[in-house]
Design goal:
The protein is an alpha/beta fold and 209 residues long. 59% of the residues lie in helices and 11% in strands. The longest helix has 25 residues. Bound molecules: CO-5-methoxybenzimidazolylcobamide.
Amino acid sequence: MADLNGISEALQKGDRDTVAKLVQAAVNEGLSPKKILDEGLIAGMSIIGKKFKNNEVYVPEVLIAARAMHGGMNILEPVLAKAGVKPLGQVVLGTVKGDLHDIGKNLVAMMLKGAGFQVTDIGTDAPAQKFVDAAKTKGKCVVAMSALLTTTMPQMAEVVKAIKAAGLKDVKTLIGGAPVTQSYADEIGADGYAPDAASAADVAKALIA
Ligand code: B1M
């Protein structure tokens, strides 16, 4: 019998092999891939997200849980694609121009994927045009930006401006990173701000709804 709770628990422990084994068993049993994703992998990742927000777990645990999630997703992705299951939404994610910090961005990517988003990671030191070009290929999407330096924060305003100038009406912008605040988001006209990776997934869900 498929053990969705076991998938969630193994993911929280970062036990990639068990996650992969249980996901494969559930697929072999003919369980819907969406159910395995929602009630196994996403359920586990959202618990990790809440614990991370509450400082009950830290960056290493999140990275290990994300690795376990990948173990399950490797098996599930082709099955989901075959079944025509669509992701929750599209996110274009990057660290802005001049900024090479990517640990926070990678955590955000993991939380977004864990919530069911398809993430296009355009990397670090990404100029405004790179965000715009990626967003153009996605249509309705969230453009998510990370900045860790006070000197690179203004690049977020450049991206917001470039998206508006390109007339991308279906694109919402989301910003975050240690020096970034809600009032800065308001000042530059970004659609959303998130203080941490788990909240980024929540805000992205609200923006795409
Ligand atoms: Co840099 N660095 N660094 N650094 N570095 C900081 C950020 C700094 C605060 C250190 C300090 O002085 N105390 C300082 C910035 C000062 C400022 O501007 N206010 C600083 C500096 C000055 C620099 C250099 C300029 C140093 C130099 O060369 N003189 C240089 C700049 C290079 C560049 O980017 N052009 C530099 C370089 C580096 C390394 C390359 C050595 C390395 C980065 C390695 C890497 O990322 N691959 C590095 C590191 C590791 C740090 C610290 C120590 C740690 C950053 C980190 O990864 N934190 C940092 C000091 C510190 O924070 N204690 C520091 C862990 C990570 C999980 O947190 O990224 O904040 P964070 O992400 C959080 C939230 O911010 C949020 O979610 C995450 C967790 O939930 N979040 C988002 C992040 N992005 C989000 C996006 C969202 C939503 C939430 O929506 C889209």
